[in-house]
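Running this now, will post back.
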Amino acid sequence: MSKKGSLDQIIGSDQAVLVDFFATWCGPCQAMQPVLEETARLVGDKVKVIKIDVDKNPSAASKYQVRGVPTLMLFQNGKTLWRQSGVVPAHQLVQVIREHVKYT
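Update: finished.
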């Protein structure tokens, strides 16, 4: 999982990016960590998976209207392809990625 570069630069790239908006104090957010690791392993380098701490990055949370954590958003070329709040199982995340992301 990557943490380099500004969020706008990262989500503006051709590569699809799954963003997990989370908080360290949030139990469901902590439960998402192994799910995100499994998802990243399953999709390989097709999708970049990053985590954004809403307490450390309130402007990003505000910009993307994150009202609850965890909130997951899938971006490609700067466009939001999908978003959902709450815990999402790895198999569902992989399915969402396959449905929305065009890659060979």
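The chain has a mean pLDDT of 92. More later if anyone needs it.
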